[in-house]
C-alpha cells in the first residue's frame, strides 16, 4: 500500500507544483525562442512571401534570397562587417582580460595605501552614463589618429570597471593558503598571479570574456560616431544600412540578424558551464 504524498504548506502536492514549474519554464523558453525562430524563418522567405498578410510560419517557397543579397551585394559588404566585428570583439575581450585581471588582483591581494578609495572610484565610474563619454572619447581618439580604424572600437572600452569589480570578487573567494604555499615554494608575486591565481580563475575569466565579447559585438552607437568607410564598419551599424528609407526588405534584414546571432549563440553554448561557475563564485565575498 502506497503512502499518499503529503501536501505542501500552501496546500498543493509536490506533483502539482512540479507541473506548474515546468509549465512556467516552457512558457519562458517560448518567449525567448519564438522571436529567434521567426527570424530564421523570415530569412528563408522570398521578398513577396515576407510581405504576406497574414504572415505564414512556414516559408513557401523555401528560398535563400536574403542570404544571396547580403553575401553577393558589393555595396553592402556584410561579410567584411562580420569579420571586422569578430576581430574587434576578440581583441577587445583579450584586452579586457589583461587589464581587468591585473587591476583586480592588485585590489584583492596587494596591500597599499588608498586601495579602498581606488576601488570605490573604479566602481563609481559604473554610474556614469556611457553616452556622456562619447564626445571626450572622440576627441581623444581623434588626437591619436584612430578615427575610422579598427583600434577605435577595440581600445577605448578595454579599461573595464565592471571587469575589475567582477574579477576582484572572484579573487577574494580563492583561499589565501594556496598563495602562501606558492610563496613558501619560492614563487614571486607575478608567478603566483600567473601560475596559481589565473588557472584557478578560468570560470570567471571565461565569463568576463563572453560578456566583453557581447558588449563589443552588439555596440551600435560608438561605431556610428567613429567609423565612416563602408569597409571599416562593424556588423551592428552595417546592418542598419540594410534598412531602406521607403522599403523594408525583411528577408535581407533577418538574414543579417541570423549572421549576427550565430557567433553569440555558439559562444554561449561553449562557455555556458564556465559562465555558471564564474557567476556563482564571484559573489561569495565582498
Q: Which sequence of SSEs, written as H and E, runs from N to C?
A: HHHHHHHHHHHHH
What value does the Rg take, in angstroms? 25 Å
- Overall tally of domains: 2
Globally, the shape reads globular
Q: Strand share of the residues?
A: under 5%
Structural class: mainly alpha
Mean pLDDT rating = 84
Amino- and carboxy-terminal Cα gap: 53 Å
The CATH class of the largest domain is identified as Mainly Alpha
At the fourth level of CATH, the homologous superfamily of the largest domain is MetI-like
Question: How helical, in percent, are the residues?
Answer: 55-70%
| CATH architecture call of the largest domain | Orthogonal Bundle
Remind me, CATH topology of the largest domain? MetI-like fold
Tell me the number of strands.
Answer: 0
Q: How many distinct helices?
A: 13
Poorly predicted ranges (pLDDT <50, ≥5 residues)?
none
Largest β sheet strand count, sense and barrel closure: none
Domain ABC transmembrane type-1: 82-271
InterPro entries: MetI-like (IPR000515), MetI-like_sf (IPR035906)
Protein name: Carbohydrate ABC transporter membrane protein 2, CUT1 family
Keywords: Cell membrane, Membrane, Transmembrane, Transmembrane helix, Transport
